[in-house]
Amino acid sequence: IPVFILAGLLVHCVFLVSIFEIYFSSPLVHGMTPQQTPLPPPAKRLVLFVADGLRADSLYELNSNNTPQAPYLRSILENNGSWGISHTRVPTESRPGHVALIAGFYEDVSAVAKGWKENPVEFDSVFNESKYTWSWGSPDILPMFAKGATGDHVYTFCYTAESEDFGAQDAAKLDTWVFDHVKSFFNSSRSNQTLFSALHEDKVVLFLHLLGIDTNGHAHRPNSREYKENIKTVDEGIKEIASMIENFYGNDGKTAFILTSDHGMTDWGSHGAGHPSETLTPLIVWGAGVNYPQKVTSQFFEDNFLKEWKLEGLKRLDVNQADIAPLMASLIGVPFPLNSVGTLPLEYLNNSAHFKAESIFTNAIQILEQFKVKMSQKKKTTLSFLFTPFKPLSDSEQINFLKKARLYIQQQKYDEAVSLCKTLINLALEGLSYYHTYDRLFLGLSIAVGFVGWTTYVILVIVKTHTNLTKTIQTNNKETTVLFYSFAFVGTIIAFFLLIQTCPWTYYVYCLLPVPVWYAVVRELPVTQDLAMNLLSRHIGQSIGFLLVCTLGIEILVFSFFYRSTLTVGLLVFAGWPAITQLWVQAKTTALIWTLLCVLLAIFPLMPVVGREPNISLVVATGLLTVLISCFSLASLCKSKNKYRNNEDLKIHFYQVGCYFSVILN
C-alpha cells in the first residue's frame, strides 16, 4: 500500500505539472530584428496616463444633471482628439494590463506560476525602445519595465508600498502624489542642464500610473462617491499636467497624449475575470499626429453605450488593448516592441496615407519576424517528414506578400497596401498560435492515455482488495516476464523517437508515463476478466441501472463547471436517496437529517458567486455551527459502542474539529 500511495502521488504530480507545460508555456520568442517606420514621426514625445481600474462607462457616462464626470477629458474627445474603447483580456489584472499596453502582447500565461507578479520571460517594450522614459506611480508596476530595459534610460519614481492602503479614506492622494512629483520634476529640470537637454530629446516617454481609482474601487465600490471624486481628481490633474508640459515645450505641437486604463472593475469592486465591466476600458488620444474628432451621422455597435453616453455623433474607434503599443511606437517613431502582437489602429493617426502604409507595413514585418522565429524553432525539434508547416504562410507566400505590399506603396496604392498588410498580420498571428500549440494535441493525448490508465488501475486495485467481486488469481511469472519486456521495448522506441527530435526532458516524462501505468493495468487482466464475468452473471437491468447512475453523476459534475445550478440537481437526488433504499426504514432520524441537510446545501449553488458586501458574522456563525455539529457527533460516537471508537478514524474527527476551531479564531 505505501508503494501504491507513493506511485499515486508521483503520477498526480506529473499530471499537475503537465498542465503548465501544455497550456501555460510562454508564447514569447527571441531573436527578432527591431522594425521601425522609415518616415519621420509626428511627435517627439508621448505622455501616457494609465488610470488603474477605470471603467469605460465610469468615465464616459454623464451625471444625473447631464454634466460630464471628467469635464476636461470630455472636452478633449469632443474637440481635440479621438476616442474609443480598449478591449482587455483575461486575466484583468494590473500587471497583464500594463504589459499589453506597453509591450503589446497579452499576458504570458507562464506568469501564473509567479502569481501574475513577475516577468517569467524577459520582453521588449515601448519604454525599452525609447530614448528616455520617466515614470511615476506604484512600486508594483513601474520596476518591471525598468528591470527588462536594456541600458540606463528608464527611470522610475515610486511611492512606498505601505502607501497602497486599500482601506484608506482618501486613496486619491496616490494620484495627487504622482501629479505633484511630475510638476516638481519639470520645475527642477530648469536648473539641471543635463535633465533639461534629455527632456528635449526625441523619442521621450512620460508615464503616469494613477492607482487611486483602483484603490478606491476596491475599498468603496465603483458607484461610490469616493470613486467618482477620484475620477474628477484625475481629470483635473491631467488638465494641469498637459498644460504644464505644453508650456514647458513652448507649445511646439510635438507632444502626443494617451489616457487609458489597464482594466475595469465589477460593481462590487473586484477584477480579474471577463465581465464587460472589467474588460471595457476608456481610450482617449490627442495631440501631435492624432486625428481630430470625426463627426458621423450613424454608427453601429452591438452595445447601447453611444446612446447612454450621448456620443452618437462622434466616431467611436475601438481597439484591442495590445494595439495601443504599436500606436505609441508609431507616434514617436521608435521600433515596434519585438514581442508585440498588436495591430496599429490607423484611424487614430492624423498623417499622410504614405505614412500610414509604411507604418502598417512595418507592423506586419515585425509580427512576421516572430512567426518565422517560432516556425524555425519548431522545425528544428521535429523530424522533417513529420513537420507540418502553416500552409497559408509558406516561404513563397511570405515573399509574395512582402513584394506585393512594397510594390503597392511604390505605386502609391496605399489603400491596397494597407489591406494586404492587415491580411498578412492576421495570418502571421494565426501562424504564431499554430506553432505555439503545435505539440498540444500530442502531449494532451499522452497525458490522457496515462490518466485513463491510472484511473483503470486504481479501480482494479480497489475491486481486487476491497470487494468480493473477484477471486484470488495466481500470476504466471513467465507471462509477466514477457509482458515486462514487451512494454520495455515500447518505452525504448518512444524514448528514441523523442531523442532524435531533441525534445525537452519533460516530454520524456509525459510520453513514457503511460508505459508503466498500462503495464500495471495489463498485469491485472485476469482481475478484469473475472470482474466482467461476475457482472455479466448478475441481472442485466441492475447492471445497466448502475452504469446509468454513475454516468449521470459524472455528467452533473462536468456540467457544474459551466452551470453551477447543476449541482442543485445532484444534491436533490442525494436528498431523495434514503427514500428508495432501506435506510429510511432502518434509521428514520438519520435519513431525515441527511435529506434536510442535502436540501439546504442545494440552495448554495443558486446563490451569487460573489457577494457585494462581506458578511463576517455569517462566516463566523457557519464555522461555529460546524464545530457544534461536529462536537455533537463526536459525543454520540464516544458514548456508543461503535466499532470505530478505538479506530484511527476517531482521532481524525478530533483533528478536523480542531482545524475548524482554529480557522474561526483566525
From TrEMBL:
UniProt xrefs under Pfam families: Phosphodiest (PF01663), PigN (PF04987)
Keyword tags: Endoplasmic reticulum, Glycoprotein, GPI-anchor biosynthesis, Membrane, Transferase, Transmembrane, Transmembrane helix
Bilayer topology term: Multi-pass membrane protein
MF terms in GO: mannose-ethanolamine phosphotransferase activity
Cell compartments where the protein resides: Endoplasmic reticulum membrane
Family: Belongs to the PIGG/PIGN/PIGO family. PIGN subfamily.
Protein name, per record: GPI ethanolamine phosphate transferase 1
Name of the encoding gene: Pign
